[in-house]
Every structure is written in structure tokens, then in C-alpha cells.
Design brief:
Elements lengths: L7 E3 L7 E2 L13 E4 L1 H12 L4 H8 L3 H21 L2 E4 L4 E3 L23
Parallel strand pairs: 1-5, 3-4
Antiparallel strand pairs: 2-4
Length: about 120
């Protein structure tokens, strides 16, 4: 029996969930859509946008470095397919928890200031 997947820590949810070609296509089938998980988005944000290396990103996400490496490799292939084949990209799903839902980091040092989700009460 395999070990259950460990949820990844995500600090920021994406503001835009869909990307794609400028010309609208009539065919919006699953064949023309690639799904990127929220975990893959967070991996890209940490490594490419924030400038972290794999070890730092793994620590921020609460997983092993090898998990970040596999996630990043999968992410790169998906982005390349979108660009080369002109497919739409949708960000959704994944096994993750937001930083503010975890008790071990009350003040997450990895969350950008002012962008951390807070409760309404």
C-alpha cells in the first residue's frame, strides 16, 4: 500500500485561472485545454518569480526537494505544450493547503505582503 500524498503548502492563489491564444477558437474541448494544478503554479511562482532554488521552494511548500523537481518538470512540459500547440491553460485542483489554514506558520514569511488570504471575521 502506498503512502498517501502530503498536501503542499501554497501561499498565494492565482489571480487569473485561464490563459490561451488571442484568437478565439470554436473548439473548447478537453483536447485543446491543458490543466495546471495550483501546486504547479506555486512551484513556478516560487522558483521563477521569487527566484528561489529547488531546496528553498521545497522548504516553503513543506515537501522534499525531489517532489519540487518532479512538479517543476511536469509544469515546464505543460507550458511548452501550450505555447507550441496553441492550447488553452487552466489552473485548477491539486492537493494543497493555504498557509493561513496551517497552524504551524501563523505568520508565513513566504507570503507576499498584503496578498495573504484572511478570514472574514
Amino acid at each position: 500500500m502506498s503512502r498517501p500524498p502530503k498536501p503542499r503548502r501554497v501561499c498565494v492563489l492565482p489571480e487569473n485561472l485561464s490563459y490561451g491564444p488571442l484568437e478565439p477558437t470554436m473548439d473548447r474541448s478537453e483536447q485543446n485545454t491543458i490543466i495546471m494544478s495550483v501546486v504547479e503554479y506555486e512551484c513556478m511562482r516560487l522558483m521563477d518569480y521569487e527566484g528561489m532554488n529547488q531546496t528553498e521552494a521545497a522548504e516553503a511548500m513543506g515537501v522534499a526537494r525531489s517532489s519540487v523537481q518532479r512538479t517543476y518538470e511536469s509544469l515546464r512540459k505543460k507550458i511548452a505544450r501550450c505555447l507550441v500547440e496553441g492550447k488553452q491553460l487552466h489552473i485548477e485542483g491539486g492537493d494543497f493547503m493555504l498557509c493561513n489554514d496551517l497552524e504551524d506558520l501563523p505568520d508565513c514569511k513566504n507570503c507576499p505582503p498584503g496578498r495573504r488570504r484572511r478570514g472574514r471575521g
